[in-house]
Amino acid sequence: MTDAAQASPWQGTVALVLGSSTGGVGQHVSSLVRGLLANGCQVLVCGPAATDEHFGFAAAGAEFVQVEIPANPGPQDSGAIRALRRALTGREVGVVHAHGLRAAFVAALARPTAPLVVTWHNAVLARGLRGSASALVERIVARSAALTLGASEDLVARAESLGARPARLGAVAAPTMGAPKRSRAAVRAEFRVAPDVPLIVSVGRLHPQKRYDLLLEAAARWRELDPAPVTVIAGSGPSYMLLAQRASELRVKVHLLGHRTDVPDLLGAADLAVITSDWEARQLFAQEALHAGLPLVTTAVGGLPGLVGDAAELIAPGDVDALDRAVREMLADPAKRADYAERARRQAASWPTEQDTVVDVLRAYAAVTGVPAGQG
Questions:
Q1: Could you give the CA distance from residue 142 to residue 159 in angstroms, rounded to a whole number?
Q2: Is the separation of the CB atoms in 317 and 299 below 8 Å?
Q3: Which one of 21, 66, 169, 299 is at 20 to 30 Å from 122 when CA atoms are compared?
Q4: pTM across the whole model
């Protein structure tokens, strides 16, 4: 047993539950799997088969049980509830830890005998009937959890307003990013970007929440700059065709790259990172950009201001004029970019590490089970 395991605040069997994910939630659960195993816990992961294929939970040493929890609620939830209940039956699980509202809703209705810890990763932005249904899900989840952890302060406040007791901020670290495998010149050559041409990068799911339509609108204005920057957006999602059509209409220098596994390479080749989302908690790409020392322009929404501090240029959401102005000023001022690069590295060094995050959830498990340190 390692020294970390001997000093662990809690040891036992934990069931991690998640729904469909290709991004931050799955990355976080993957990090927890590795950390919990290293700290002497037994780990069961319950989620869609595609998440195990993408994140490798079983390959890391966890037991994986397929529970198909889709992104949107529907009649199929009854099957997911039964599948999760079967997965938990007959196992001595000390804590069930659900990630995201969809997984937490299924876990709450499965009524596990072990205490339920829920991490809220995302806000509900839907309106109308869908928004009302989501609000009901939020309320059920908030009142079912023995402990609620929020990835940002606004999520904690939302959970508390719906009856979550207790609720607190939960540490969520970005997984350690590897070094670039290709040179700056090689990556820029892929997109035919000359050495003196600015390269702007954004990474995220192609979803309306990310507001990549604003980035395209701003990019259309940047054609008048000399040299005109090139923008690349890495990610897949339901908005791909709409964004591709809009980019064609605007005749912008924007590449929609689809899913990429070489984000460190993209960051190493870029001059500026941009986030245009309507809402984020502790967005993975924001953390990756600052870890890489890349100047960042981001919307001041959700948990982003607290995450980046003074290490990024903050703009109002939905404001294409502000986005245009902030990017122009960054590109025109190398000294300003260098200053923000230094701030980025300093801010990233202040964030919790993956081990800090694991210790935080172990303390949470100890709190809800009442089990003293080193027992489980």
A1: 6
A2: yes
A3: 66
A4: 0.85
